[in-house]
Amino acid sequence: DWTSGISFSPLLFPFRTSPLISLDQTISLHSTGTKKKKKKNHQSPPSVSLHRVSALVEDGCLHRLCYALRHCLHLIRKVMELESNTTGRGGGGGRGMSKSTKKVLLIVNCILLSLGSACGPLVLRLYFLKGGKGVWISAGLETAGWPFVLVALLASYLYRRRTDGPGPEPTKVSFITWRLFLASAVLGLLTGLDDYLYASGVSYLPVSTSSLIIASQLAFTAVFAFLLVKQKFTAFSVNAVFLLCLGAGVLAMHASGDKLANETKGQYFMGFFMTVGAAVLYGFVLPAIELTYSKARQNVTYTLVMEMQMVMSLFATLFNVVGMIFHHEIQTMPKEASEFELGKVGYCMVLIATALVWQCFFVGAVGVVSCGSSLLSGVLIATFLPVTEILAVFIYHEPFGAEKAIALVLSIWGFISYFYGEYKHTKKSTHTSE
């Protein structure tokens, strides 16, 4: 089983950069048939402790975040190089991804997913707290970082073109077919609608509350995964789904005491139900992506996964741009920037950081689906919610009452239950094969 031997401990600390360096070394160990190059001594950036994250965000100093994102881009390029070496000429044919490649891809996408899950809601909430009012703008920012994927694909193409050399077959620029393009476009439009629902919910709810509500997404992912891709369940996975949904239900029963200042009860419940709607919709999108992979009629390489993700993000962005035009939010952006509490420069930095962080989330989510399953992707998203809750309490000084503590314990319990079940299944499979 290719999931054996994977350590998820670095995922609990997405702000530390040491896992990135160790992963780079892991990739170089798995690469075969390539010439060894001299390693340059790169000085690792210092770790960002939790009590400094607040000052980092409030002062608008997001250069550390950009540094981490640059490392993620470097890792994606490395993975594409590894895939090119294991799939033959052009990176799109041959025997597909090996087990070792899937292990590395899973770790890389888990890191991207952890970064997006933990930081995305915080940066998006910062936009509203500092004076931002455009719901369609914030929704479009969640997928506006698709050029980031284009840069990674360009780096992969240039590498494949250099390593292929002269030959009878030219290096392919793209591997996506029209059939997959249309499927990705439809999924992108659904993602755009989901982004709008989620952004609307975040505009009314505290980060810690909206993050715990999103945990209910796992239940909908499980149901749709069973209906669309015939996902098999164990007692541990069912227990995890039940506990994570129970945590969201605890918050719903104590909703009235968690309103923000100057917010009506009607606005709070509107944000609550729109966030639940976002959880339902994305719970359908993840299994639909897995179904698309299974019906692709071609090798689903990581390059193809990235191309499909770029198409999905492009159409999701176009969906929200249309909403921005009809609601005249584009015309109000200069005025909004001038009135932003962090200034015009801080306004631009928040927008850029939001786009890049959320693109890491979506790339990581579809990557985990391609290397694992839609249910695993949903479990990981729910797993990183406690990190977001803790950071929200420290950064934005949000209240953390008894109901949130209970929901947090239930989320951690569900996480342990799921991965203990996976451990038991892996151990049993290994024993049977022997």
Automatic annotation (TrEMBL):
Membrane-crossing residue ranges in chain numbering: 104-128, 134-159, 180-199, 211-229, 236-256, 268-289, 310-327, 347-368, 375-396, 402-421
Main location: membrane
Highest classification ranks of the organism: Eukaryota, Viridiplantae, Streptophyta, Embryophyta, Tracheophyta
A single GO molecular function term of this UniProt record: purine nucleobase transmembrane transporter activity
Membrane topology: Multi-pass membrane protein
Compartment(s): Membrane
Stored InterPro entries: EmrE-like, PUP_plant
Keywords recorded for this protein, A-Z: Membrane, Transmembrane, Transmembrane helix, Transport
Protein name (database record): Probable purine permease
GO cellular component term of the entry, any: membrane
UniProt family annotation: Belongs to the purine permeases (TC 2.A.7.14) family.
Source domain of life: Eukaryota
